[in-house]
From TrEMBL:
Keywords: Cytoplasm, Methyltransferase, rRNA processing, S-adenosyl-L-methionine, Transferase. It is an enzyme of class 2 (transferase). This is Ribosomal RNA small subunit methyltransferase E. GO terms for molecular function: rRNA (uridine-N3-)-methyltransferase activity. It comes from Actinobacteria bacterium BACL15 MAG-120823-bin78.
Length: 236
């Protein structure tokens, strides 16, 4: 599998040359030690990609030639995950894992029991995790949302599921149709979703589901939820 980098002005004409000269190029040259003849992937982060070959390498940029090009269609289900902010580095870990799971949009949530605060570098984290997981579509990372805003998002979704340890229904019992174009998954903070927040989500139309017996950390619950729901909806 070829290494992936992102560029704003993706070259797509096979045979054309392109000056690869952003921060990713600097990383490829100085850290990965790429030389002339190296082949790798470039993407615009929105599905388009090009396989390129380095033909000339300088200190901070390289001239590449497009060998192949294409476009990756989005999956039929658009997945949004609302992630209550964990504390410290666990917020970054949550963004990385959600990106690697293939979600389309990440919404940091300021829950009443959230400990984490900063969201400044979440978009950068999602971009870097997209390179690592070799996905051609970088997930959208929105601004910090309130509970009221999450309720509005629930109303606009085909299916919204909030995971809670007190739920009486298994996840598999809460999915009755595979025809879901917009999916919203809500992950609470380490201290749990409050009764008031849970009631608001249910009132807006969200289904409450149990995620197995073990209680996962907030930063880890998202990737487990996305995996389970994607399998049940036959997205995977």
């Amino acid at each position: 599998m070829f290494t992936l980098f992102f560029v704003d002005d993706l070259p797509t004409t096979v045979g054309c040359t392109y000056q690869f000269a952003n921060e990713d190029a600097n990383h490829a040259i100085r850290v990965l030690r790429m030389q002339a003849g190296a082949e790798f992937m470039l993407s615009d982060g929105n599905g388009a990609w090009s396989q390129v070959k380095a033909i000339e390498v300088s200190k901070r940029s390289m001239q590449v030639q497009v060998m192949n090009s294409g476009y990756q269609e989005a999956l039929p289900t658009f997945i949004t995950v609302v992630q209550a902010l964990p504390k410290g580095d666990r917020s970054k870990e949550a963004i990385e894992l959600l990106t690697e799971s293939g979600v389309d949009r990440i919404v940091p949530w300021s829950a009443s029991r959230s400990i984490g605060k900063g969201t400044d570098k979440f978009a950068i984290t999602a971009r870097e995790a997209s390179k690592q997981s070799r996905r051609f579509r970088i997930p959208q990372v929105l601004e910090l949302a309130t509970t009221a805003q999450i309720c509005e998002a629930i109303k606009l979704s085909d299916l919204a599921i909030v995971f809670h340890e007190s739920a009486s229904h298994k996840l598999s019992d809460q999915i009755s149709s595979h025809n879901v174009q917009t999916l919203l998954i809500i992950i609470g903070p380490e201290g749990g979703i409050s009764d008031e927040e849970l009631a608001a989500f249910e009132s807006a139309g969200a289904k409450v589901a149990l995620m197995g017996r073990p209680i996962l950390r907030s930063a880890h619950a998202g990737i487990a939820a996305v995996s389970a729901v994607s399998a049940l909806l036959r997205v995977w």
